From TrEMBL:
This is Glyoxylate reductase/hydroxypyruvate reductase. Residues 128-305 form the D-isomer specific 2-hydroxyacid dehydrogenase NAD-binding domain. PROSITE patterns: D_2_HYDROXYACID_DH_3 (PS00671). Gene3D superfamilies: NAD(P)-binding Rossmann-like Domain. PANTHER family: 2-HYDROXYACID DEHYDROGENASE-RELATED, FI03731P-RELATED. InterPro entries: D-isomer_2-hydroxyacid_DH, D-isomer_2_OHA_DH_cat_dom, D-isomer_DH_CS, D-isomer_DH_NAD-bd, NAD(P)-bd_dom_sf. The gene is LOC107226870.
Amino acid sequence: MIRPRVLVTSTDMMQPGIELLKKTCEVLLCPVPELTREEISAGYPGPVQSREDLLGHLKNSCPIDGIVWSNKVRCDAEMLDLAGPSLKAIVTMSSGFDHMDVDEIRRRGIQVGRSPFALDAAVAEVGVMLALSASRRAHEGRLMIERGQWESRPQWLLGHGLKGATVGIVGLGGIGRGILKRLSNFEVERFLYTGRSRKPADDEFGAKFVLLDDLLRQSDFVFVTCALTNETRQLFDAEAFAKMKRTVVLVNVARGPIVDHSALIQALRHGTIFAAGLDVTDPEPLPASSELLQVPNAVITPHMGSCTVKARADISVLAAQSLLLALSGEPMPYPL
Ligand SMILES: O=C(O)[C@H](O)CO
């Protein structure tokens, strides 16, 4: 029997997913290039698959039947041309899909899907971590220790707590609901959410569906958990910050470009908003020279929301299962 040829766009895919694919497919792994000595000394953030590397791998791997897209290099017409006409299915090993040219993939009759939900708990945990760290000024406190500025006086490093707060969630999907569920033990006064439609969570945690403007004006904590789309790109701009409370804490665990970073820096520096916790930035990787890293009331992590061993292993299995289904002529569980 001929085994379908499946390309995985980086060797970084976790073993459980690779093992599952190997049971019935021939698996080709695109190696992640090592950093050069110059790149290391220039402080380059880490080994990544460049677009050029991936184009080269695609060209040398034909014919291929399926692809697990396990990195954030953009999947577009140029990539698809090189993948060749035998390509039947692509699944991205992520919940977000803004790096996939879905229209172009579908136009070619190729099934395309994503891998949501397996990472929800892990990302929700990072959302809570960022909310707590930003609202309680953890980064600022650490900087003060390092600078020998530790002060023991009653009004030093005062922050804002979750108890009695209004928490607003923008985009109540699996991650938003995960945050809601976790924060329901923090004595939050009320939950608001906004998005394209009302959700059953309305009943489950007493969360109230409101318009974005109302959420911005009323919330003490705002969590961004929506997808990056044409409607949400730069949703948080100077105008949005001006509507928010001066004591608000903004947490973004979705995608960097949903927030206008220059406007955010201004809002943080001028006290238009109190603090921000960001697991995602624009651009990524965030350059070490970014002004955002100089802002004391911003807590920043490097898009690591889904970085737990279990979440990454589960995502790899889900992606492999989806691709195998598509290759056997079945629909994918989470099509795009
Ligand atoms: O979309 C996702 O799966 C997470 O943000 C990790 O990229």
